Amino acid sequence: xxxxxxxxxxxxxxxxxxxxLRCVPISNHLYFYWYRQIxxxxxxxxxxxxxxxxxxxxxIFDDQFSVERPDGSNFTLKIRxxxxxxxxxxxxxxxxxxxGPGEQFFGPGTRLTVL
Amino acid sequence: xxxxxxxxxxxxxxxxATVAFxxxxxxxxxxxxxxxxxxxxxxxxxLMSVYSxxxxxxxxxxxxxxxxxxxxxxxxxxxxxxxxxxxxxxDDYGQNFVFGPGTRLSVLx
Lengths: 115, 109
Fold this sequence. Notes:
The complex is a heterodimer.
Chain A: E1 5-7, E2 10-13, E3 19-24, E4 31-37, E5 43-50, E6 53-57, E7 65-68, E8 75-79, E9 88-95, E10 105-106, E11 110-114
Parallel strand pairs in A: 2-11
Antiparallel strand pairs in A: 1-3, 3-8, 4-5, 4-9, 5-6, 7-8, 9-10, 9-11
Chain B: E1 4-6, E2 11-14, E3 19-25, E4 33-38, E5 45-50, E6 55-57, E7 60-65, E8 70-75, E9 84-91, E10 97-99, E11 103-108
Parallel strand pairs in B: 2-11
Antiparallel strand pairs in B: 1-3, 3-8, 4-5, 4-9, 6-7, 7-8, 9-10, 9-11
């Protein structure tokens, strides 16, 4: 069964450093998403991406964040200068729904720890 | 602000019990509704989509009441493996999902 994969599973970084989180969505999917979940809190939407551009982004997704699909398979989230409050689990998701948010399939997540 | 509300629980039930979870959402324009389950420190996994007419998948039944902006999930004959957090998820009439805080279920032997 096809699945979304994410690397690394755990990333530890110093405050102020740049991190890149990587995702490989399901191959025939067209819509890609990043979410985050701070420990003990709910899952929060960051950004959606379709046709090589951002479709929507939340208030959390400020100038420190960027996304890219550098090739036909990877989808990355970059945080330029990490803050302590960026520590969270980051989930990538993908869906194949045209015209709306269909069922989204989530990767196993990257746990980001900012020291 | 678009919100999805759930009773956080925990719901502690014996094996074999029937348990029901409720969820309310604030955006009347929402079109898509889902239940996901999340095990501790794992990713959300789709349990079922929720359709206007209600739908059933084995021991799980989901209902949607658009007028009251209310979604429910019923689990019959609970198994130990049903222990997880159940997330109510609603679209905000865009491309993104709004997640509820989740309801924690513990099924006890």
